[in-house]
Amino acid sequence: xxxxxxxxxxxxxxxxxxxxxxGLKPHEASLQLRDATVRANxxxxxxxxxxxxxxxxxxxxEGTVLLLVSVRRPADGGQVSLPARVSATAxxxxxxxxxxxxxxxxxxxxxxxxxxxxxxxxxxxxxxxEVRREGEPPATLRFNHDF
Length: 147
Description:
By secondary structure, the chain is an alpha+beta fold. It has a single domain, classed as Domain of unknown function DUF4426 (Immunoglobulin-like, Sandwich), CATH 2.60.40.3340. It has 3 helices and 10 strands; from the N terminus they run ααββαββββββββ. Strands 1, 2, 3, 4, 7 and 8 form a 6-stranded antiparallel beta sheet that branches. The chain is globular and about 40 Å long. The two termini are 20 Å apart.
């Protein structure tokens, strides 16, 4: 939830369009691991300001959605990013799968994994976000989202 609040604040500070005007809403899912939390956020790229999109190398567009994944653990009253290899796919109800190419993105002292994909209105997508950390078994966060 904290990441969604942070993103909402960033979007507002950057002059992004309100979510209600785009018709698409941000979505957050999370998975608690032994010592860490994996969070996945879906954000319509139309909600990002041009400056923010340019800063992070994200192309804004109708039907383009940003998947932002963080792997963090509590530390000294805050949180710290954990190194991980993250991969993701989105599958529609017809079984068509698209791989979401993720890249590491540094923002605000945190390391996240970000990638964009296409979604159409009325799509229902099932996401599989696989996280591999050294010395830990792989973990998969699965969730659905209706667009």
